[in-house]
Design a protein that fits this description.
The chain is an all-beta fold. Helices cover 3% and strands 36% of the residues. The chain is built from three helices and 41 strands.
């Protein structure tokens, strides 16, 4: 794994991949560590003095002929004295590149990817293959990748997910791949939906809904490989019309073919079989893991306000390796439900043969109020503390106690109250309480002139307690810079807003305080309801005591859509670097560097959910490439920034 001690320190030498500089770092998983802090406190080259327009800039680019939706991984010393960069694509390619020479060292094709016509709502992605950031297990020198592929190369109807265990140095398989298949173990009988999960209706054989794997892969401390799935659009898409969120976990020893360990997974289904939803997508972020414990955040679907349909929830699971060759288990330990919806179902929530008394959210199924993901970003566990943070589409950050999540107690067991309105100006404590209690308060009410009638209708009902600038402020990324065991700074960049920073305190009942904000506004040219996804973040700096970061060198890096919407369309993006600690007059962060200027982003078309990766003096950024004159992605481009000389 990337970490040693209490995690914020990235590893300097990897078992099996060779030793390099004692001050070098590897990035082997999404957000750099299993706590998902997105902080690298082993950066000894880039600092506040040399990250500026004169000394820092674009070094090189590398083009791919397929769309990339995953974060690049960096293996320190993976190419002799240089770093190895690993990129995976939607054509099921695994590609290794020299960070210094830009030479493509290997390219492995894992199988024929699927046509994505029924997976991509906006029609931008021609193929669907590897969509989740892989993970490298440093202890065994193994790269774990999950590819989605056709069961038969010439037939797009039937598809399988397969788990591959590869050597990260050359892409070669270390053992045969495993097809993901099986039934959930906790009694609700959900089938994980692959090419063989079929049923008969009206004399026709149909498939259950295919899931989407977008959340990054994760490793537990007891040999577990964790995969978290959302359903196809988290809505009704063919088949029996009951997609489920799944957590699936393998024993890595079984995947590597070691005797006495099963190659079958533990499977957890987040809702009852005859209900739907609770997809886990995390905006591409990975589950949090700590020892044998896993934390995932779910999204919309049916809810009965109990512990079975865990939509809009935080779920705590334990990975239990199998004994004597039996498959492992995923035990549900605890949960927290953010929105205790009334038991009223809107039109389209259920189907005729489902008599369960449930709610599908705050509004009818085709409204914004039913698509209000608690799991809009990955959870983040503050190292060395009990504080588990979750950012939501409401623009709120919830602070949960990892030892007592709270279940149906919405507020009383939170580590601070009220939840923090973080991605936009939510007013004083009383207004924060009002927004936390009025569940549609963060839904904008677009004026008729801002959008067409159909789009405006989608946002109704909304609240007269409108969000700032009457725009969406969903949170899709957070980052944490640790000062010491008791405090640190949380950075969040919501949609249609600026990067914001808050002082956080790890003890109970201490409210965060606002520090400062950036100058750039994400999707600044968009009228209400605005654009997506806000800013994606990373932090770099030297180490300080107790695995903290040295704020004299700490930098916050962000990629955001300067203009446009990077969800339905493509946003003109910008890379920006801020001094992580200095506060200028007016409560502003000090900008060190940006691509472009006030009038253009200068980076290219934003890779929607791919944060910048900072390692060993280089910053890696992924953007999209379009076919000329179209909005179809034909590939991606890796941009590498660093010191010019």
């Amino acid at each position: 794994m990337l970490w040693k001690s209490t995690v914020l320190v990235f590893t300097a030498v990897l078992a099996g991949v060779g030793a390099g500089s004692a001050f070098a770092v590897s990035v082997l998983e999404r957000a750099g560590n299993p706590f998902r802090t997105a902080a690298n406190n082993q950066e000894f080259i880039l600092n506040k003095q040399n990250v500026n327009a004169n000394q820092f800039g674009l070094l090189r680019t590398h083009d791919f002929d397929a769309k990339v939706e995953t974060q690049p991984l960096v293996v320190q010393g993976g190419v002799g004295a240089d770093d190895l960069v690993i990129v995976t694509t939607m054509k099921n390619q695994v590609i290794g590149i020299s960070a210094r020479t830009n030479q493509r060292l290997y390219e492995v094709d894992l199988g024929v990817e699927a046509d994505s016509a029924d997976m991509d709502a906006w029609g931008h992605t021609p193929t669907w293959g590897i969509a989740a950031t892989p993970v490298i297990d440093a202890a065994t020198n193994t790269l774990y990748v999950v590819a989605w592929m056709r069961k038969n190369a010439n037939d797009n109807r039937y598809r399988d997910y397969k788990v591959f265990a590869l050597n990260p140095m050359n892409g070669m398989q270390k053992s045969p791949p495993v097809r993901i298949f099986g039934q959930s173990q906790e009694g609700n009988g959900c089938w994980f939906n692959d090419a063989d999960a079929v049923f008969t209706e009206n004399g026709q054989t149909q498939q259950y809904v295919y899931p989407k794997l977008r959340a990054g892969l994760a490793l537990t401390g007891n040999n577990g490989l964790v995969l978290a799935f959302a359903a196809n659009g988290e809505s009704f898409q063919g088949g029996r019309k009951n997609p489920h969120g799944f957590v699936i976990a393998y024993d890595t020893r079984g995947l590597l073919g070691q005797t006495g360990f099963s190659r079958e997974p533990g499977i957890f289904c987040a809702t009852a079989f005859n209900n739907w939803g609770a997809g886990i997508w995390h905006a591409g972020g990975a589950p949090v893991t700590e020892g044998d414990t896993i934390y995932v955040a779910t999204s919309n679907g049916t809810s009965n306000n109990g512990g079975v349909d865990l939509t809009e929830s935080m779920i705590k699971l334990r990975f239990v390796p199998g004994a004597g060759g039996s498959r492992p288990l995923l035990q549900k330990v605890d949960w927290y439900k953010a929105f205790l919806d009334e038991r009223t179902s809107g039109d389209g929530c259920l189907w005729p043969d489902n008599k369960t008394e449930v709610s599908c959210g705050r509004a009818a199924i085709n409204k914004a109020g039913s698509d209000w993901d608690f799991g809009a970003t990955s959870p983040m566990l503050i190292p060395g503390s009990n504080m588990l943070l979750q950012g939501t589409k409401d623009g709120l950050i919830y602070a949960l106690n990892k030892n007592d999540l709270g279940q149906n107690d919405r507020f009383n067991k939170l580590m601070f109250r009220p939840p923090l309105v973080a991605s936009y100006d939510g007013g004083d404590v009383n207004e924060n309480w009002a927004r936390a209690n009025r569940l549609n308060a963060s839904i904008p009410c677009p004026d008729p002139g801002d959008v067409d009638d159909g789009t405006r209708n989608w946002f109704l009902p909304c609240s007269d307690l409108r969000p700032e600038n009457n725009r969406m402020h969903h949170i899709h990324a957070m980052a944490y810079a640790k000062r010491d065991a008791a405090r640190g700074i949380v950075y969040v960049w919501g949609e249609n807003s600026q990067l914001k920073s808050y002082n956080f305190f790890t003890g109970p009942d201490t409210l965060p305080t606002f520090r400062a904000q950036g100058s750039e506004i994400a999707s600044g040219n968009m009228r209400s309801p605005g654009g997506m996804p806000g800013g994606l973040l990373s932090i770099s700096g030297r180490p300080a005591a107790t695995d903290a970061i040295d704020f004299n060198t700490a930098i916050v890096w962000g990629i955001y859509a300067k203009f446009g919407d990077s969800n339905k369309s493509f946003g003109d993006s910008q890379l920006v670097a801020y001094d992580a600690s200095t506060i200028l007059p007016g409560g502003k962060l000090r900008r060190l560097f940006r691509t472009g200027d006030d009038n253009q982003g200068g980076l290219g078309l934003m890779g929607k959910m791919i944060p910048p990766v900072v390692a060993n003096g280089r910053v890696y950024v992924m953007i999209y490439r379009l076919a000329p004159g179209t909005d179809r992605v034909i590939g991606s481009q890796l941009k590498v920034y660093g010191l010019k000389s």
